[in-house]
Structures are given as structure tokens and as C-alpha cells.
Amino acid sequence: MKFRRVIPCLLLKHGLIVRSQLFKVHQDIGNPMSTVSRFSDWNVDELIVLDISSKVDRHDLRREDLHQSYSGSNTVDVLSEIAKVCSMPLTFGGQIRTLKDIEQRLQVGADKVTINSAAYLNPQFVEEAVARFGSQCIVASIDCELLEGSHTVKINSGRTDIQTPPEQWAEKLESLGIGEILLNSIDRDGSARGLDHDLISKVVDAVSIPVVAMGGIGTFDHFAEGFTQGQADAVAAANIFHFQELSYHHAKYACTQADVHIRPSTLGSKYLRREPIYDQVLEAKKRESRIEQSKIKDYSKWKQDIPRVTWCSKCLYPSLSATPLEFDEEGVCTGCQMAEVKIKIPKHEWQRRKQLLIETLEKYRSKDKSRHDIIIAVSGGKDSYYQAHVLKEEFGMNPLLVTYDGNNWSDVGWRNMVKMKDVFNCDHIVVRPSVKTLKKLNKQAFITMGDMNWHGHIGIMSVPMMVAVEKQIPLVFYGEHGYLDLCGQFSMNDFPEVTYRDRLEHYGRCYEWTYFDGVDGLTASDLVLYRYPSDQQILDLDLRGLYLGNYLHWEANEHTQFVIDHYNFEVADQTFDRTYRTMSNLDDIHENGGHDYLKYIKFGYGRCTDHVSKDIRAGIMSREEAIKRVNHYDPVRPSDLERWVNYSGMTHQEFDDIADTFRDPRVWAYKKGKWLRKELIV
After folding, report:
1. What is the mean pLDDT of the chain?
2. HEC states along 368-437?
3. What is the pTM of this model?
């Protein structure tokens, strides 16, 4: 009896991981290195990486505020970086046309390569590759689409139909010496509907070489079905491994439950540790260099010839967005694309999602109300109130409210937060680090990554999960995943949950608490609140962090009015300096001032752009009106910046000097001692 394999697959586009939908919509997920590191932690069987970049190389993962930035310029550079953190067999595909292409990829770290279009366009090339590198090294990728009841093979990223049934094409590839087939269903891609078992069975029956099936995985049971119904030798998937915690373990568990013979899943790689170990000497030199750069004002890198910034043709997000975006052929960003998808979700689908939520809650409900059955992560903002309303008042749960206190509430925000326990008759735990620690983290995170609120981003994703472990409450709720709202990072079919990788890469900018251990006198004990539960703790408790926005229609303007009407929720009595909204970020006085101003400095846009883009997508603001507001609010230097520089012990000049080192040369020019934004939305 042979072992079956479960294989994560990464899709790369210009150096970043993307989520694919029907081979047409591509949504940026993030940096591949942190993801591959996580797969190594999980001791996965194998890894497949497919580069779907356009012919024009513009790989650019440079971000001065991301710890895992690098200066790669092409697909081989990306592969080389991936290989450094990859502890499992690696198959790499994309842009392979010659024997030299194969040799390059094998030399920098690939164990196998996969060939798609080139196999059809030049069969002799395949034979030559097999002869030189061996059949065990050459994989053929077959992309299939179901058209009018029949499967057909397509090449050129699904654009060209070769009018050949997949089983016949598989037989031909085997005759050329191919050692393995990667079989992908185009019409199932990103759908979460499950694998095409009919397609898989046809190809498996036609060849004697291993067949790896992918396309459509949406639940862990789908892996087992690929083996038991499709008879695949291996099952590969992408999206589910990005959006659910310890998903590889759960996938293999589902397989063992279905009596599939599979290599056991283990945690904790012998090659890597989950929490990064930083070279503190090197990191200290980087910080010192940045400070020195701010003093001498060396901005030579801004003279580089780099691509122009473009804006979404519907909303106002730029191509260098702080959140990862992709644009379609009409210039519409993925945030707008996913907003359109969300708007079109039919009523019966929302009813189905609500029922899924109810079924989940019933598994955790305390029948006699003698214990807390869920945790709600709350800041006291509008979303917090709506979460508490839904889960306590509508669904009758007995929640424990948990708040991370970063010592930065507005007066209005503080009042909203402290009265939640009485408004909803709930127990409420507020966890506050020492102010001394917070001031140091504010300053050091600003110097290091240009984000004084690193502690808040990490704290809100860590504290509720650690309280859950301490109190043995296995279900934690958050509101809406911000990266759907801003940039459309995933589809509504993905049902993303709280994960360690998402917390580290997107909330923490790839900086873990271990980075600050020893910086400015900070110790491990000072940083306890920023630690996340271990993989073993998560498994032992079966801990899950869910987003209500996956199950219920989420619209901030509607929810704000609802909680005002029903719970006397307070909004600000005047607008902030840098936006027109009065309902947002009441729980963070730095968010609307210094933190948001830093985004403008780094990327050339600010919170007003975030807000108008949301309102454009909601259909309550025209693009013309949005442009006026952005040009008015985004460039404003906030009046409350004074508060933060005093809080952190810096001067305005020190703030400006350090902040300038994070400016992106794609949008800023330094001329005659002044910073000029290269392009304005007009």
C-alpha cells in the first residue's frame, strides 16, 4: 500500500503570492517566504510553487517597513529566496522554455520542475529534459476546463484550447517520459466546490505515473474525497492553506479518518522555529543606519527609474497600496472586484451562511449559562457593539468580552468601551501593558518599521487568543477581516480564520515580539502580551478565531446607525484632521493622526482614501466627490501629532527625519530640499 501525499501549492505573480479564481482573478496574499517558513514548520510532504507572472519581469518585494523585504528582480531570485526557508521537496513551474531554464531552477533550490505550455508547443524539449535531468525531475502540468459536458486541455494560462481530451494528453505526456502529472481544474479553481473526481479518474485510469489533483478544495474532507473518489496519488491545494490555522494538520487528519494511507502530520520543524530568532547585532546596525540616514538626508535611492503609480479606475486605491492589490484589464482593483461579488451574494446564500454560524455556535454553547461559551475581541468601536449585539442578543450566547488596551483611546472611545459590560450585561476583561512598555514600543516600532501602532495590531490579535487558552474557551470572534474590506485579498468562499501567519505578516509586518527583546531595555517579560498561542495549545483546545463578516452581511455605515439607535453609541462630535468620518478609530487617538500620516508619507495616500473607497464601493459616494475629499484631507499634517511625539519622547524634527526614510520613491521626489508627490489624483 502506497502513501498518498497532501501538497500545498503557492501561486506567484511578480514575486508575491496570489489567490486565483477561475484563472482570471488574482488577489495578492503576501510575501512567499513567511508562508514557506510556515509550511516548513508543519513538516509538509512536498511544496509546489507555480509562477504565473507576465512575460515582463517586475518582481518587487521592496517595502522599507517589512522585515522580509528583499531586492529580487526576477522569478529565479524569488525561487532562490524561497529555497532558503524551504525544508521539503520543492516543485517549481512557470516560464520554463529551455533546458537552461530548468538547470537554473534546479541549481537555486528546486527538486522538480513542472512544464505546461512548452510541452505542447515543443514535445522534443520534454524528451530532451527527461534525457538530461531524469523523468523523476520533470512534471507535466495539465489545466482542464469543462465545456459543454466535456473536458478539454488548455495552455497559456487557460487562454488557448488545444482541443484534446485530458486523458489522451496525459498518455502522450507519459510517452514522452514525464514522471508525474499535476492536474488542475480551471472551472473549479478558487471555487471551494470540491475536486472534479470525474476528471481525476479519467486521467488516473489512462496513465501509470502519479497524478496530483488540484482545483476546488474548500473543506478538509475534500482532500480525503480526492483519494477515495478520484483515486489521485496526491492532492494539492492553495487557498485553504492560507486562510485556516494548522490547515495542513487538519487536512491530514480528515484523510486518516477516511482510512487514507498517509504520512502522519507532525508539528515543529527541526529546521526552523515558529517564532523567528533575530540577529540582534545586525538589526541594531540597521536601526542605527536608518537614524544616520535621517541625519545626513541621503536619498539617492529615490533617483531610481521605477514604474509610475496608477490608480484603480473605480475607487481611489493606488498600485503601491499598503495593502496588497491586483488590477484587472479594465484597471479595477481586487478590492472593488470583491466588493461587487459581495454585493451580488443572493439572499439565500446569506441565509445559508447564517445557518452555518448557528450550527457552529451550537457546538460551543453553554446550555446552562454556567460558563462563557465564546470570546468576543472588542475595542469598544462600532464593530464591537454590533458583534456583541449579534452574538449576545440575537443568538443568545454568553460571551466574555476581551480588550487589548494600548493606552490610546479618545475620550469618546473610552466611554464606549467601558460601558459595554453594562450595555450587554457581559463580563469584560481589559488587558493593559505598562505605559512604560507602550511608550518604548511606540518609539522603537516607529523607528524600525514606520508604524508606532505595531503593538496594537499585534495585541488585538494575540491577547484574546491567549485569554481563550487560559480560560479554555475555544471560539474567538472578530468582526470583518480588514483585508477583504480594503483590498479584496480573498473571496467570500474562503471563510478566512485567524492564523499565526496572517497575524505575523499582515498585522505585524513580519516583525514578531522576539524582534524587540533587548531593544531599548525591553525584555521578554515586558512582551508577554504580544505572544500568540503555540501550535500545540491551539491543537489541544481546537482553538478557532472566526470573522462574523464571513457569515453576516457587513456594512459599517448601517451598523453604526444601528448601534447609535439601539445602544446610544457615541461618535466624535467633530471630524478628524485627515478624514470626514466621525465613527471610525475612536479607540485609537494615534490612528487618525500620526499613524495615518505615516501611511501618507510612505505611500502618498491616507485614511481619507480608505474611507472614500469604501463609500464608492457601497454606492454612497461618486468618484468625483471622493477625489475632492482625498485631495483635501490626505495631505494634512495632523494637529494631534504633537500628542504622539510628546508621548514617545521625540521632537517633531526627529519624527520627520525618521519618517522620510520610509518614503516610497514611486510616489515621492526629493528636490531642492523639499519632498514633492510625483502624481496627484485630479
Report:
1. 89
2. CCCCCCEEEECCCCHHHHHHHHHHHHHCCCCEEEEEECCCCCCHHHHHHHHCHHHHCCCEEEEECCCHHH
3. 0.90
